[in-house]
Amino acid sequence: xxxxxxxxxxxxxxxxxxxxxxxxxxxxxxxxxxxxxxxxxxxxxxxxxxxxxxxxxxxxxxxxxxxxxxxxxxxxxxxxxxxxxxxxxxxxxxxxxxxxxxxxxxxxxxxxxxxxxxxxxxxxxxxxxxxxxxxxxxxxxxxxxxxxxxxxxxxxxxxxxxxxxxxxxxxxxxxxxxxxxxxxxxxxxxxxxxxxxxxxxxxxxxxxxxxxxxxxxxxxxxxxxxxxxxxxxxxxxxxxxxxxxxxxxxxxxxxxxxxxxxxxxxxxxxxxxxxxxxxxxxxxxxxxxxxxxxxxxxxxxxxxxxxxxxxxxxxxxxxxxxxxxxxxxxxxxxxxxxxxxxxxxxxxxxxxxxxxxxxxxxxxxxxxxxxxxxxxxxxxxxxxxxxxxxxxxxxxxxxx
Length: 400
Ligand SMILES: Cc1ncc(COP(=O)(O)O)c(C=O)c1O
Fold this sequence. Notes:
The protein has 400 residues and is an alpha/beta fold. It is built from twelve helices and 16 strands. β4 and β5 (115-116) form a beta hairpin.
């Protein structure tokens, strides 16, 4: 019997020689001038990024996680505050909130999109009481300060729905745009850019992101100049003048070499996002012809009818398969050397480190179901059609 030909979940070597050369040239430039920390390379990347986004302020950071931490610190979020987010996601968002000393509160997702459900958000906020000064407080008495919706896998959250609830309760939003650079959102009030839909936001440049660095990097985004100034201070230990610390910050600086690499890759981003969308279309066609649409749920495209090119940027291609069957399909794909992964196997309210928060199974049914049914398949730019057909064929074998 012939051995299966492996299909990777992700392969950076397929971005092409033009990209490889641009990245190496950028990295070598920094190695040659030796300006490793902040400086012109970082400023140039921040300026190119805001030009790409069409506005806002960008402050490069050491990771997406550190961008979020810097933002929470700049807002003065801490003990006595409570912040709302969703439990079906990567750990960083809730982890940062917890690290500031604030209370993390969860609201459930919409299973169809995997993202914050405005109705659950509304129900949660409606369950809280105002104190005598009109401040909305959690049952533990903490002040509800912020909502952090997370754009997962490449489409935006229902931002109009979330904005409406946030406005009703007078709570600010911080966008987790870690996975969504390049996407657009068809708001009822006009087209919006992911990352600029709330006063503050952040993006991750982890290597597997649509725009990935050569290591860890991130960026904090904001709409106001004074917030950008605060963030620049906080990412550098609260300093403006060297060794004079206005506030307590951290070392959240982006490396110059990462800024240079990201700047070299940025012009390719829209093309890669388009390729990811084409791959998604090819999967849809292949799953349809394989007769599998009754057995699996394909990713939803909530804004496809908007006509916007970048309504989805397919950071991940995540299907749902019934609980018992999902694990069997995954085992078969692994056996066939086909890359796949579960994003995310344990919802955050059930993580061991959050046991003291007192949540239990059943508290967030949609998040728990997403965790037990989701399976991410290869979607990266450079993935070949024959490889996609191999993935679909292997899933068909597993389900039959
Ligand atoms: C939704 C989400 N939030 C936050 C992060 C944290 O970003 P980073 O890994 O750059 O710290 C990630 C990235 O992995 C993410 O996917």
